[in-house]
Design a protein that fits this description.
The structure is a single chain. By secondary structure, this protein is an alpha+beta fold. 35% of the residues lie in helices and 21% in strands. The strands form four sheets. Strands 1-2-6-3-7-15 form a six-stranded mixed beta sheet, with helices on both faces. It is elongated, with a radius of gyration of 24 Å. Bound molecules: zinc ion (ZN).
Length: 434
Amino acid sequence: VLTKDERAVVRAVEARAGDLVALVSQLIGFDTVTRVSDEPPRQEATLQDVLARRLRRAGAEVEVWEPRAEEVRGLSLIPAGLTFEGRPQLLARFAGGEGPTLLLNGHIDTAGLEPLDAWASHPLVAEMRDGCVFGRGACDMKGGVAAMVVAMEALAALGYALPGDVLVNTVTDEESTGAGTMATVARGIVADGAIVPEPSSMAVWTACRGVTALTIEVPGRSGHAQLAQPSWRDGGAVNAIDKARLVLNALDRVNTRWTANPALAHPLLAGPRAMPTLIQGGEWVFSYPSACRIDVDVNYLPCQADADGFDSAVREEIEREILATGDDEWLAANPPVMTWWGAVPPYETPANAAVVEAALDAVRDAHGETRVAGMDSWFDAATLSLFAGIPAVAIGPSGGSAHAVDEHVRVDELVACAAGLALVAMRFGHSVSP
Ligand SMILES: [Zn+2]
């Protein structure tokens, strides 16, 4: 049940619905497609500047900084050689009372724009249709970022005294590596709970799976495809695509074992899985393929993480199974070469954490029935939880087509999300003892 003050805050956020849509639309207009390699920055700095101005106007103390290489070198999730030049991070502090600190965190980078021609309207020009804002980043997650900002503006305009500090943190490089929020952690961020408004359809996400990429190079030996070949021991050709089949069988064995293991059934998350997603092999239709490369997307559960929160045990299990193709004599003598990259850890916040309760209550009051759920892919809450010890959840507006053509966000849930965030911000200190 809402108090009189809380009702006033919800109404104030609802009165800003037009402004919220305008801000989401403005943010969509900045090209902040995530980097795939060491491409130059896009419009990250301009976007952060727009947010910084608004947050300062609402009374926050705002820092916008480009993390220096020395600050982040060697940290998990920060690839060697990565720099933040032209890609600043933002941290705003709304000062409150002595109560616990709440962190609102969102990423400003987005998936790419292709296939551009397939969009009903240009991905960088926001368009309102059927109660939704369409454009790249609409739900993932410029909508959530705009909701954080408008929630705090509404509270500030009412002059509501916050029980504890509220931090607003907008970062780059979530979609690519998770480096942006890692840089916030390196800055020494401290908070008692965090909300990341990813598009959860107003459910409260409290867990996600870890992800690792595996590249497997399966060796063969070239030769004329139509001529009889001596044994490989006598220099004969070896079909790398045939050998890759044995590697795929090994992955099947891992997946079958994982699916059958009741200890790997998670109430909120899909089970672990190693799925081949890319295969390249051979040189010419009339030659034995001399090599075959398989890329594998590996997703795993919090309970499979090692002591550091990462994937070493999962890696070992998969490697062992792939090397067990060694009853094939060629592969025993020429084992597949495995390269692991792009690891991000899984996480889980306990259901009794203060921020989970606060998020559930706020969504119920601002929107309606909700539930605790999990995110099968990875998001920044894992970084906040694992590396900064901040219990973290997501609540965000639904839409659709994240990372796909015609991405959009529902305006009614955008407003409900902003109202929910405002309610958590005004209650968090009262509902938890510091
Ligand atoms: Zn996202």
